[in-house]
Amino acid sequence: MSGPIPPSFANLSLLEDLDITGTSISGPVPASYLAGATNLRTLVIADSRLAGPIPPSLAGDHPNLRYLDLSGNFLTGAIPPGLVHGSFRFLILSHNQLTGEIPRCYGDVDTVDLSHNRLTGDPSPHLFGIAAPAAKIDLSWNELAFDMTGVRFPHHLRYLDLSHNRITGKVAKSLMDVRLEHLNVSDNELCGEIPAGRFMAAHGADCYARNRCLCGAPLPPCCDGGL
Fold first, then answer.
1. Alpha-carbon distances, residue 181 vs 1, 134, 176, 184 (angstroms)
2. What is the pTM of this model?
3. Contacts 24+ apart (CB under 8 A), 141-150
4. What are the tens digits of pLDDT across the range 72-103?
């Protein structure tokens, strides 16, 4: 399949799941053609040639949408506020050219992958926190800038990748209480002693590489007891 999505898609009013990954589909996100598919639960148009912004109407037209994957395209502009509503579980917009700050509302989302974009700002007040629902968060390879020191991560978080950003401060002590299967905060501007104890021993030196001045296990010891 190549070229824009055909207008005939507007006739698929009973459509619940659409997955057209790895094609040569081009043009804008086909929100208007899918507006009649109010029962749509899954929309995957990944590794294709979609371009332009994400339509703000995408979520409003599909109240049952739970899985959105538009990764690997050429999407630009900001992520629309309200894109993620209460029923959302998976938001995957990685490997695009999205800019601006990450919207505040994330409902009950389980997986957020916004890696490899040009996103800015501080997502910590609304994506992190003890009550935050997400189990997987990948925000790597963006331009996010915030102080990590006092961020509280939810105990049920299992995957966290914040590498290749502009994050400052210290590695958050709250990570000691999170049983992460994957952690990567490398290539940031973090400094000070890495918290020790509980679940921190599971993470190797690569997780912390190429920061400003991190020290302590699994990196070399701090010369003065930490900064």
1. 38, 14, 13, 10
2. 0.93
3. 141/115, 141/116, 141/117, 141/165, 142/114, 142/115, 142/116, 142/117, 142/118, 143/118, 143/119, 144/119, 144/120, 145/120, 145/121, 146/121, 146/122, 148/124, 148/172, 148/185, 148/190
4. 999 999 999 888 877 789 999 999 999 999 98
Query: Where exactly are the structural domains of the chain?
Result: 2-191
From 3.30.300.20, 3.60.140.10, 1.10.1040.10, 3.80.10.10, which CATH number describes the 2-191 domain? Answer: 3.80.10.10
DSSP 58: H
Q: How far apart are CA 34 and CA 104, in angstroms?
A: 25
